[in-house]
């Protein structure tokens, strides 16, 4: 867990905030599920300078009207309950108030490509930061490790819960476990087999629930990971960040951190935060940290370019 001491946080206050996050995630998940019965309007947005087109004529990343409607309603409900809090969401471009202690971080549907194609593996991610530290996390998943949808949730210093119930340990007799990995990763490691799901928030929930040993996230945005970091800490897992070309234990979201070894000294905002993270148990994190140089360094760039060339 974060090394900073949050002595100013009162657990009764965090309980109230966690309840709201769970309430919002539950409502948003129900809205997304109901929308699978219809054909929502879909638009596309550019993938951004940090992400290359997947092919000629790539339309970009999909955004459904369900994404935008959910985020707008979550913003409305949070602002009514906590008007001094600021909000940061994937779909609305406005920057969060840089002077606010409390920042809600929203991904209305993580795994939108899965969602619009009716592949039933997606999530709603709602996190809350206090001075950059994730203190509340709620991730609604279209399916849980017990099957059926549900919300994984936690607050700073609490255990991990699923729909209000504390999670039990995973089966002890399984000799070869699973891990989450980005697309294009090897199908297995010497220690576990990899799975690709298409939703970082879902993967973080599954890592926290000990379904997966770990997940390396090579450069995602804050809304993809804020809630999941809180869940991982609640499950006594490790979170590592790439900072100044080194891997160190994650402590908080720094608005000046953008990308591998990069920082913004001017006009910094949490909205621009990007960084590789590794989340999981100690053994798995050490495996990915040792391998990360081949993914993020020169060898990794050459390998990715070769794969794109061969796929043409």
How would you describe this structure to a colleague?
The protein has 312 residues and is an alpha+beta fold. It has a single domain (11-169, 176-311), classed as Fructose-1,6-Bisphosphatase, subunit A, domain 1 (Fructose-1,6-Bisphosphatase, Chain A, domain 1, 2-Layer Sandwich). It is built from seven helices and 15 strands. It has helices at residues 11-35, 65-81, 112-116, 200-208, 222-234, 282-296, 298-311; strands at 42-45, 61-64, 86-89, 102-110, 123-130, 133-141, 150-155, 161-162, 165-166, 177-180, 192-195, 214-221, 238-243, 246-249, 274-280. A seven-stranded mixed beta sheet has the order 3-4-5-6-7-8-9, with helices on both faces. It is globular and about 50 Å long. The termini are far apart.
Helix-strand layout with pairing:
Blueprint (H helix, E strand, L loop, with lengths): L10 H25 L6 E4 L15 E4 H17 L4 E4 L12 E9 L1 H5 L6 E8 L2 E9 L8 E6 L5 E2 L2 E2 L10 E4 L11 E4 L4 H9 L5 E8 H13 L3 E6 L2 E4 L24 E7 L1 H15 L1 H14 L1
Parallel strand pairs: 3-4, 10-11
Antiparallel strand pairs: 1-2, 4-5, 5-6, 6-7, 7-8, 8-9, 12-15, 13-14, 13-15
Helix pairs in contact: 1-2, 4-5, 6-7
What would you say about this model in short?
The chain has 312 residues and is an alpha+beta fold. It has 7 helices and 15 strands. The chain has one domain: Fructose-1,6-Bisphosphatase, subunit A, domain 1 (Fructose-1,6-Bisphosphatase, Chain A, domain 1).
List the keywords.
Fructose-1,6-Bisphosphatase, Chain A, domain 1; globular; 312 residues; alpha+beta; disordered C terminus; 15 strands
